[in-house]
Model the fold of this input.
Amino acid sequence: MTGRLWPRGLRARLLVAVVLVTVLGAAAAAWSSARSARNALVTSTQQRLTAAVAGQIGAITPQLTYPPDQGALDRLRAAVGVHTLVTYRGLRSADGTGVEPVTGALRSAVRARNRLVTQRITAQGRPWLLIGTPIVITAPDGARTPSGIEVYTARDLSGVERQVDGLARSAAGTAALALPLAALLALLAARSVLRPVRELRDTARRLAAGDLGARSPPQGADELAELTVTVNEMADSLQASMAAMRKMQADAKRFAADASHELRTPLSTLAAVVDVLAAAADGMEPDARESSQLAISETHRLVRLVEDLMEVSRFDAGTARLRVDEVDVAGALRDCLRARGWLDRVELEAPDGLLLRLDRRRLDVIVANLVGNALRHGEPPVRVHVSASGDQVRIQVTDGGPGVPEHVLPHVFDRFFKADAARTRTPGSGLGLAIVLENVHLHGGDITAGNADGGGARFTVRLPRDVEDR
Amino acid sequence: MAAILLIEDDPLLRRGLQLALRGHGHDVRTADTGEDGLREMRSSPPDLVVLDLMLPGIDGLEVCRRIRSAGRVPVIILTGRADDFDVVGGLEAGADDYVVKPAQPTVLDARIRAVLRRSVGDPDGVRAHRDLRIDTAALTVSLRGEPVLLTPTELRLLLTLSRAPGRVFSRQRLLEEVWEHDYLGDSRLVDNCVQRLRAKVEADPSSPEYVQTVRGFGYRFGPV
Done:
């Protein structure tokens, strides 16, 4: 719950905290100054009222007879004013209208202390100052004896109270005045903190998105500036290592491209001379004939390997291009199988008249590699199944062998990946499936390797019906 | 047996190809630079030139252009890569066909034989279409009475197309019939050859009368 009540943004938090602190501080200051002003005001008013009452009583007491009768009490009451009560033993001044100016506490205090006592009460919804005093007889020798006459009077404090309220209001106003000021300050402070934070965030986002050249300019010399400098250094080192890695990768790829390029001329020579050897092999001694045949088959293998390497290098260099034609898929697949003498070893199931715009040669490479793989590593029956749906065409190549082990599946498209370490020499170059993958991607399609329900390996190629030229 | 001039700078490959092509029944002369090759051509023109594009001195493309401007001797180029501009450049320079290294002698031999084959089917006399006369027996072509000098490939393309005026031939079909390529032939060969043929027989090659494009399908002869 607190998470929801407490604002989440840094700006909002700063704003709330600063405003809260400022307003509380201002309110406390205003309240305390209002309070002391009020105390001073109340005290002085009290003193003034008390002195006035004492003066009035002092003015009339010499004219009093002692012991006083009812009339004397009434006169005394009238002299002090309304809301006054004068008592002498059992006697009370008449006309005790208005506020009852005496409370039990006040009376006992007056009697106990035998001097003027004040008390503040609220009556009829207004604040009052009650003043109670005994009248003391001072003998000519200075001896003071209580006369037994007690004067109680009440004075209205509404005026003072109004003044005090005014003070409180002005204090509250002062505190309120601090509110917008505090908010402004908080916003300014928040901005100075948040701008670098936001810049850092943007920089981090761009870095994450792959823009390794993204940096934030550090401003000032505070902790945020230090953080910015650190982030920039991190980005520098990231950029440097990425560049180094890319260079290494590019170097490795260029090396493969250069190497295969350089191999072409001597391989062409070899291919030419083994062609001569092949023609003459029949008339050779058995050992020489076998050697010639080995040289011939290995040369062909080398030629295939170098051709595959060059093909892969073209993908790596980004120079592989599609040459899109309208192609009858069933016909193209039949041609592909027929050219390699596979027609009677592979079951081809493809709808007639399915025309696609794609690169005929690359389709041939894809299917020839997948079927060749199935024939080499799987067992019959090898099936090629083509189906079209919506804007996609699916070509599935399935064999009847044991399938591809689960731990091998993620690596089947890796270059030179060999599932079985012992079987290092297969007729393939080790690049076939990698080339298939690249060719499928070049068409904007995808390929997955898996196992059929029956257990055989199954490669599924999905190609868009209409490939954009690229 | 054909008289072949092989222009190749690598001595071992030159010798290897010479031996292999000789094994396929050809008479092979060699040259190690473009300049040398052009000299050889002038002294005794061969039936066909096999030309490596990577040569010291004047490069293969330039040699190809000069051979083409000098006459009708067919040229097969040896190129490093099938995809790059070498092939496009070579075809634009007038090459009839290309073989990608590492070159297989059997493939090269098949290309040589296809390029050198001039006739198509049995001669059926003279085909006359407006200003164009195609003599299928003498294998000559004339436009408004003037002889048109076509390379063997251009002639075969024209003979193939004009055999059935108005019929559309796909590029694939033309590659099989004219170049004798398998089902994966490079359709750029057809497009380039069509352009060269048009330049020789059409009054306005940009709006051709005789060799017309059928968009998305291929080419047809006429209808005139």
